[in-house]
Amino acid sequence: MKRAIRTHMRDFIAILVLLVLSVGVAGYILNHERLRFPFIQPSPYTLNAEFSTAQALTPGQGQEVTISGVKIGEVGNVTLKNGVADVALQIDPKYERVIHTDATALTRPRTGLQDMFIELDPGSKGAPMAKPGFTIPVSNTNPEVNVDEILSSLDGDTRSYLDLLINGAGQGLQGKGGDELAQVFERFEPTHRDLARVNGAVAQRGRDLQQLVNSLQRLNTSLATKQSQIVSLVDASNTVFRAFASQDNNISRAIVDLPGTLQQTTQTLAKVQSFATLLGPTARNLLPAARALPSANAALSALAKPSAPIVQNQIRPFVVSARPLVRNLRPAAINLSKATPNLTKTFTVINHLANMLGYNPGNVEHGYLWWLAWLDHNVRTLFSVQDANGDFRPLFLQASCATYTQLINSLNLQSSGLGSEMESLLNVTPILTSAGLCPTQSAADAKDYQAYQSQQQGEKANVLSPTGTAAKALAPFDPALPVK
After folding, report:
1. Which domain does 458 fall in, by range?
2. Any idea what the Cα angle at residue 296 is, between residues 290 and 301, rounded to 5°?
3. Band of the pLDDT at 245, cuts 50, 70, 90?
4. pTM here?
């Protein structure tokens, strides 16, 4: 194992570097996907919050839980229990000693796209600390108040008056700058404070009325024990009550409707108070943008005035002149759109063909591109006649030494002249007489050549035997030997 590592040290170091990089990239991605690593990151502790509605709260989306704008956790699972939404809050362990049992929670959108987050008020320091698993009751939570909920809580006359108010405000602010609108919002702030005091007074009046009714009930109970005094009181008050008798039905109806009216008014004004609380900081945050509107309008005017002649005198005539061409291009575009699927299929087939040609199996065999280059080289070699051999096409013959020997012998037996020409054309004699290429044929040719020399010296007649054809073929290479 160590020897293999030392032999392939570069490959081993490269694999280790790739492994470290892959682990680092995987850790970076998982960390940004909000995955907590065990034994490295402490697990969060969970608090629950009950909401009357969990609109746009989605588990696993990284929706934040904040205190004064500081992220302390994320929204966990959302379930339905007893008609209310139970939202799990995954709080970071370092904020465990911050939240108390009288904490309040509000759902708020970051933008108009309903990307919600939960704003926590940690509660008072005198309250006990909230332990893991503690549930913030629905009385201490408040979901986002939509505009349609505010409008639905108003009667028809109030909605009409509100419509007139908004339309009048739009007409009044038409053509005005951002400074006037900001000043209007600033003037509304004392009104909202006064409305808050009026709401508190109305709520106190409701409690006082409830106490009054309770006191009246106890008074009536006490009076029931004293009937004689009551008789005299009734006789004395008969004339008074007779005067009120004619308005008895109206008074009764007003008293019956009063509790529901007060309750609805209290709820409506409470929602308006929440809206006003958010509207004040929002209006203040809009002041820089409103102050920047005049400079932005001036910059836009400086851009629009020089651009108007260009649009009017250059771009518009060009568009008018291009309309006939665009109309003529419409049939061609329609036909092209019809042919596009077929072109897509064609290019897909061409792509597959190119992939097949470019595929290289590796060390097993060569790919198609290699064989195409090889075929091109052979074709150019076959059809090339621009060399020193004359206008003959090159030819490559592959055979064994015995086959070449048999071919030359056969040609020599049939016609000595044709055999000599073929031997000169093929030029196989240097191959057959080479001991390194054809050892068997080289030894046999050398033996035949010696026998041929002996016959030339001892005999005048030239008798060729089947084994002497190779010697006859060697004769042109020896100037001392005559060839018959």
Report:
1. 401-477
2. 135
3. confident
4. 0.32
